[in-house]
Amino acid sequence: MSMEQISAVLDFFKIELPSWGFADTGTRFGKFLQDAAAVTVDEKMADAGHVHKLTGSCPTVAVHVLWDFPSGRTAAEISALAAAAGIKIGSINPNVFQDQQYRWGSLCNRDPAVRQAAISHIKDSVKIGRETGSGLLSLWLADGLNYPGQADIIARKKWLADALKTVHGMLPPEMTMLVEYKPFEPAFYATDIADWGMALLLAKAAGPRAKVLVDTGHHYQATNIEQIVAWLLDENMLGGFHFNDRKYADDDLTIGSIDPYQIFRIFHEIHNHHFRTGSLPRIAYMVDQSHNLKPKIEAMIQTVDMAQQLYIKAAIVDRKKLAAAQAAEDVVASENLLRDAYLTDVRPLLAEWRKSRQLPADPLAAHRDSGYEKRIAAQRRAAHGQKGGGAYA
Ligand code: PSV
Ligand code: MN
Q: Fewer CB under 10 Å: which end of the chain, C or N?
């Protein structure tokens, strides 16, 4: 692949950062606070903009409605904050899991008044999407059961399907709705949208602008995520990703920190789909990570860099040779074509692309040299003390 083609691939590959990834988050046992963590939405926008300035690849930021749109701040104000930081508002994430009324679920709650409250919050989120020019409504529900027999699973399925249809009906034409699945946590017996099959059925029933969102941390161990991705692509039902890595459960570790080959295989299926069909579906590449120990901005820069490396590695697979090796049933040659690409050191190519786009060749070093972290740590400590805040404040 020529440098020109690699540059085109990198120009195309945009990664959305999550506002909540810049805030102090923790485990169910507690949080370790960082002075430089963003507390306010102004700070989250500034940090996301800083990462975009250094990487040139993160023009949008995902927002979580209850965490990022405090009462009294308008959508126009938040959009202006993003614009001042050189970015735009990306996916809008309604929050129908935090309020006490959702103890027994949100869109799956047996109480029609609670289902209506959740729909009404999602309606407000769609309005925010319209006002901020976002094209994505990203839905994740914490709905589920902790014990067998706790509720009628099919009654909940029907309430959910009806609600998602209603939500689809609220979307402006330019907006897509993503349905995220998760097999466990916070529910420990049956999550209402537990896997990609359920998400697919619900999205298809909701309407043509509903697609599936694959969060890489939301699978059981050993699930073949790239096969799910290939199937969703073939069905034209892949809406986007929430990228993160994990060792055990939904650990929210930085992408590729545990199993970079898995993300490579996912990207391989995407490039393969492009090779086979010539079509490049609109896929939202979003990060969903919260950083407990790593400095948040450094973790995001590391994430973007790793995602770009793995994306190029998958792009340089020799697909003509691969098709020939597959046709000859040459298993070893086929596998080696993937491994050759994966084992190629693409860092010099990435550095060359960055230089050609007037970006620092090493964004992490540029960040460390910039003094940004020290400056915001001092400012934020002065402004907020040791209080922390953010996603699970
Ligand atoms: C839930 O685990 C999730 O993956 C959803 O995408 C949420 O919106 C996000 O994490 C933040 O809690
Ligand atoms: Mn997610």
A: C
Ligand 1 binding pocket (C-beta < 6 A) is 20, 93, 140, 180, 182, 215, 242, 250, 288
312 within a domain of the structure (yes/no):
yes
Q: Is residue 392 part of a domain?
A: no
Are 211 and 229 in contact, with CB atoms under 8 Å apart?
Answer: no
What local confidence, expressed as pLDDT, does residue 391 receive?
46
**What's the CATH code of the domain at 184?**
3.20.20.150
Q: Give nearest CA residue, ligand 1 atom 1.
A: 140
pLDDT class of 28 with cuts at 50, 70, 90:
confident
245 falls within a domain: yes
- Residue 341 has a pLDDT of 98
**Overall pTM > 0.85:** yes
Nearest CA to ligand 1 atom 10: 288
User: Look-up: residue for tokens 């202006």?
Assistant: 80
Instruction: Write out pLDDT tens, residues 69-113.
Output: 998 899 999 999 999 999 999 999 999 999 999 999 999 999 999
| Collapsed DSSP state (helix, strand, coil) of residue 61 | strand
Which tokens belong to 242? Answer: 């929430």
Ligand in nearest proximity to the CA of 62:
1
- The β-bridge partners of 240 are 213, 284
**Contact between 94 and 142 (Cβ < 8 Å):** no
Ligand 1, residue 20: give the atom nearest the CA.
Answer: 11
Task: Write out the residue range of the structural domain in which residue 240 sits.
Answer: 3-384
The structural domain count of the chain equals: 1
Compute the average pLDDT of residues 366-390.
88
Q: How far apart are CA 88 and CA 59, in angstroms?
A: 6
Which atom of ligand 1 lies nearest, measured to the CA of 185? 2
In a domain, 115, yes or no: yes
Enclosing H/E stretch for 17? strand 17-18
